[in-house]
Structure formats: C-alpha cells, structure tokens
Amino acid sequence: MDERLVAAYDYQLPKELIAQRPAERRDASRLMLVRDDLFEDHVFSELPQLLREGDLLVLNETRVIPARLFAHRTTGARVELLLVSDAERAEGSASRHYRALLRPSKRVREGERLTFRAGEDELGFAIVGASHPEGVRDIELRVSLPLDTFFERAGRLPLPPYIHNESDEAQRRYQTVFARIPGSIAAPTAALHFTSELLDELARRGIEVAELSLDVGLGTFAPVRGEHIDGHRMHAEHYNVPQDTAERITLARQAARRVVAVGTTVVRALEGCVVEHGTLRPCEGSTSLFITPGFRFRVVDAMITNFHLPRSTLLMLVSAFAGRERMLRAYRAALERRYRFLSFGDAMLLEPALAPKV
To answer: How far is CA 294 from CA 290, 300, 317, 322, in A?
Structure first.
C-alpha cells in the first residue's frame, strides 16, 4: 500500500488492550525490543542491559499542568475547559490569555463569564473570546491567587479521553518521576516507565542521561484528516534544547555513541532543532515538524516509545524511523502477545531499519 495514504497506518486495536491503569510498578511494564526483524519480549526494568555502555539517553523534563478546569455559567450549568496553549501575561495586567477547548462549546457565547469555585470559595473567572478552527476558543483568565495555587485547586491533569479512570492514583502516575518544567497538557508517556532506581542503574552501567523539554500539546493528538498524510499540518509545540544537552549530544556523535530518544517528543525537539537551524545547537522555539516516511533523521539513533493509535501522526513517526511494514509487523506481534497499548501501556525499544547515519 502507498505509504503516503493514511490508510497505510491502520490496524485493529481491541478496546481491552487499551491500558486503563499503569503497571503496578513503573518499570514492571513490558518492553518489546525491535532489532532487525526480531521482536523480543522483555520487561522495562531490563532496559540497562538492552542499551549499550556509552549510550546517551535523552529525556523530556516537561511537567503536565492541571489544565482540565471546571467552571460554571451564570445559569449554573457546568463547563469543562482544557487549556491547550497560553500567552504570557502583559506587564501590569491581572489577566492571562489562553486558548482552550470547551465542553459543551456551542452553547457558550463570546463574552460570557465562567466562574471557578472550590466549595464555597470563588477562585476566579474566565471571559470567553473568539472561536478558532477545531473548536478552540480564546479565554481571558482572571484569578485572585497565585496561578500555581489556582491550578492545583481548580484543575486536574487532563488524562487522554481513552483512559476512563479518574482515580487519584491515575493522576499521580500520569507524571514522570523527573517532571520539572510545567507546560504540557499530556505526559511524554514513554518516560512514564522510568523509576529513580532504574535511572541509577543506567548511570552505573555507563549510560549517560541528558534533558530537554517539549510542551506536549494538540499537535501530538490531532487526528489526520483526509486520505493523504501530506495534507496534514501539525500544531506547533514549544521546546527547549539546553546548551549542556546540545554539547553532550555533539560529543556522543563525535565518539560514535548512540543518541537514544525517550519518546516521540524528544525526537521532535531534536530533529526539529536541526531542521530549523541546519545543525544541533542550543535552541528554544516551537516546532510543527511532521515526521513521515522518507524523513532523514540527523540526531536520533534509537528510540523508546509506547504503542500508538491507528492512523496517528505518532505511528507515522515511528514508521519513518523503523520502517512502516516492520512497525506493522511489530504491532501485530504485540497484539498477539497481548501487550497493553497507549499512555498507560507497554513500551518498545526501536532500532532503525536502515544503516546508521553518517
């Protein structure tokens, strides 16, 4: 099948294989090693033995913010808001401007005021603004307490819609152990499998770790509409590759050591930086890079990732890295072996199908 067709990335995902809860221990999830044409079954805690001494593991330190908010209209009806992007507050202003998805959306008029409460306490309000494509609305948020405190009292982490688990445990586990820089509306899920003990073991085995940040937004989840992938446009996501990380990657490449990306978010940040600047360097900005088969990877030598939705941009990205037919065979093997899929599911360690970069 033509790999530029969206249908070329389709497969049947049984609902019972969509993980609703994380593994009891983060690193107890399963890990499929995709090496050559072999699909080996492992446990994530075995990762230090599967990597090579000298590998450089790159993590996304982004932290998921409690961007799922509940407010009330003047009629008393409840409205759910998902903040998807923000703009810096103007100096001297008490408000902050966001773009958000509202549910229900059509009933909420431009200029309407939505009030946030915790028990009897009023925490602030939002003024609804103009509409944008894909149901996004402008929001002016005004709160009377520090913004972090407001989010903690008024918000919840926005778990993906396919996870029907509202428990406090699910909220706690939908955050990596090294999350540090707030800004995402979704977790970099490949990194959810790491524990502090596993990171210590990686260091003992001579596996280096570096960090960057990419704020996961709508670009990661927006469906690919139409028949051809070339018509899809990604939403931009903010990223930051610090100087120390850029220098470590450069040294690793010079020494022919592998750069192993933990998740598609790290891939987009690193490769997006190179696409924008021509080379990897310290950089901060936004990327709307859509990686599909035929893309030339300039930085990433191996990748850790979860199992993704059919027809998604993420499945297209890993297919670009490891080969579409090879990935679909790996997915068929995972389905037969009852791996758990999506955010709370199991993981893969992918090595490229093609010869190493030069």
So the answer is: 11, 15, 10, 11
Could you tell me the CA-to-CA distances from 189 to 62, 73, 165, 273, 318 in Å, in that order?
11, 34, 16, 21, 14
* Cα–Cα distance, 179 to 214 (Å, whole number): 11
CB 275 within 8 A of CB 240: no
| The dihedral formed by the CA atoms of 296, 302, 307 and 308, expressed in degrees to the nearest 10 | -20
pLDDT, one tens digit per residue, over 249-262 is: 999 999 999 999 99
CA–CA distance, 180 with 174 (Å, rounded to integer): 14
Average pLDDT value for residue range 322-347 = 98
Asked if CATH classification 3.40.1780.10 holds for the domain at 6-64+170-350, the reply, yes or no, is yes
Question: Cα-flanking dihedrals φ and ψ of residue 27, to 5°?
Answer: -85, 10
Its sign, for the CA torsion 245, 246, 250, 256, is: positive
Using CA atoms, how far apart are residues 57 and 296, in angstroms rounded to an integer? 20
| Whole-prediction pTM | 0.93
SS3 7: helix
For the 68-156 domain, the top CATH level (class) is mainly beta
Residue 284 φ/ψ region, left for φ over 0, alpha for ψ in the -120 to 50 degree band, beta for the rest:
beta
| Pairing state between β 259-262 and 56-60 | parallel
Looking at the chain, the domain(s) classified CATH 2.40.10.240 span 68-156
Terminal-residue alpha carbon distance, the chain: 30
| Over residues 220-248, mean pLDDT | 92
Quote the strand ranges of 220-353, DSSP E: 237-241, 259-262, 283-287, 302-306, 347-350
Task: Show Cβ contacts of residue 18 under 8 Å, excluding neighbours closer than 6 positions.
Answer: 162, 163, 340, 341, 342, 345
pLDDT band at 185 (very low <50, low <70, confident <90, very high): very high
**Rounded CA separation 306/323 (Å):** 16
Angle ∠(139,159,58) on CA atoms, nearest 5? 100
Q: Per residue in 80-120, pLDDT tens?
A: 999 988 754 443 445 789 999 999 887 899 999 999 998 88
SS3 of residue 347 by DSSP:
strand
Residue ranges, CATH 3.40.1780.10, the chain: 6-64+170-350
